Amino acid sequence: MLTVFGDIRSGNCLKVKWLLDRLGHDYRWIETDVMSGATRSTEFLAMNPAGQVPAVVFEDGRTLAQSNAIIGFFGDGTPYVPADPWDRAKMYEWLFWEQYSHEPCIAVARFQRAFLGKAADEIEPRLVERGRAALARMEAALAARDWLVGDGPTLADLALVAYTRVAPEGGFDLGPHPAIRRWITRVEAGFGIG
Amino acid sequence: MLTVFGDIRSGNCLKVKWLLDRLGHDYRWIETDVMSGATRSTEFLAMNPAGQVPAVVFEDGRTLAQSNAIIGFFGDGTPYVPADPWDRAKMYEWLFWEQYSHEPCIAVARFQRAFLGKAADEIEPRLVERGRAALARMEAALAARDWLVGDGPTLADLALVAYTRVAPEGGFDLGPHPAIRRWITRVEAGFGIG
Prior knowledge:
The first copy, chain A, has 194 residues and is an alpha+beta fold. The first copy, chain A, has helices at residues 11-23, 42-47, 67-75, 85-115, 125-143, 155-164, 178-191; strands at 2-6, 27-31, 55-57, 63-65.
C-alpha cells in the first residue's frame, strides 16, 4: 500500500491527501511533525534527502517528493490535469508560481503566526508585502474566471487553495478579495474538501 | 514568431533560451533588464501579471511564464521529457525542488554578490547555509548517477545546471563537489550550452 508522510497542518501535505481521497486511492498516512525534527532524522533523510514533507513511498520502495510533483503524478490522466497541452502548461505555470511566489510568503507568515506564535509586527514586512501582492494577483485572475485554468477544477486550484484558505491565519485579510472567497468555496466543493 | 522576454544574465531565462536553441525554434529575444524595473511597467504587467522574466508570447498573443513551465511546454514530446510517467514525475520533483530549495538560495546569493556588489559577509547566513545544503544534496545524487533522472539529459538537468554552473559567483565553492563539476560539463555538452 502507498505510504504518505505528511504533517496534517501543512497545506503542501493536504494537497496530496485531498487528491488521493478524491481519486479513491488507498494509502497509509504517517503523521510527521515538522516542528519536532522528524523530517531531519537519518531514516527520513534516507527516504527523502530533501528533508521535507509530503513524501510518498510506493510498495516497491520508490519515493516521490514535492507536493506539486506528487499531485501531478496522481492527477495525470484524470480531469484535474488538462489533456490540452496549452492548458496543462498554464496549470504548471500556476503550480510553479505557487511554490515560488505564494507559499514562501503566505504559508511562511502563517507558520510564524499560527505555529511559532509570533505577533503581527514580528513578521518580516517583505513577507507581508509579497503575500499581499500574491493575493492581489489571484483576485485579478479570479474576477474574470471561475477556475484558474480552463472551465473546471484542476491541480492549479487544488494547490493554490491549500494555503489561500488559511491565509487569514497568517494575518492576510481576504475581506477585500471577494473573487478569491467565492473561488475557495467553489474549489472546496469541487474537490470535496471539508 | 515567438517572443521571449528575458534577462540574459538570469539562469531562469537562459533555461528557456538554451532549450529553444537546442530544439531549433525561431524566436525574438527581448532583453528585459530586471534591475531597471522593466518587469514592473504597466505594459509588462499586462503581459505577465507576475512581473517576472522569462515570459514567452506566442503569435496569437497568448503568454506563458515561469521558466520551468515554459521548458515543460516546449520539452513535452522531446527526449528531454521522459515518456515514462515515473521518470517524468521524478523530473518534476527536481524542477519544483529547484525553484523552492535551490534557486531562492543560490541564485539570490549570486544576484546579491555579482549584481548588487555585496560582500561575502553581507549575505544572509541562512541563504549560504541553505545553498550549501542544496549543493550537498546534488553531489550525493550525482555521485551515483550521470543524470538526475533516467539515463540521459532531461529538463531536470537543464533547470538545475542554470544556477549551479554560476554558483561560484554567489560564493559557493564547487571544489568539494567533483560529481557536480563533472555533471555540469556533461549537461553543457548534452544541451550544447557554450
